[in-house]
């Protein structure tokens, strides 16, 4: 199972910065099992959240810069054109639009407002653990 197109929500990137414990994702990226799908909107949200004072005490600026380098190297940047408006939390609709325009296989999140949808177009919406189980079970 190669080249699965995956969007990781901001909450997962922040968790990664705090815990540095997503070794499976690192392996999936290095092995070409997943391709990260990003947009300017997701990048902007990540940077804005990472700058919040209550989170800054958990990781260094160099950690954010290192993660941004990873995005640059391993992510495909997609320009969002779709205008889907189905999420009960309207500010999350950009992720659904990214899923459609980026032809993502998976949108990975811990956000219940997104998880309740289960699927948008051809994109399955699931948790980090579900993604790891799915990819390990099929690789």
UniProtKB/TrEMBL annotation:
Domain (PIN) spans: 4-116
Where along the sequence do coiled-coil regions lie?
none
The domain of life is Bacteria
Give a Pfam family name: PIN_3
Signal peptide region: none
Output this protein's name. Putative toxin-antitoxin system toxin component, PIN family
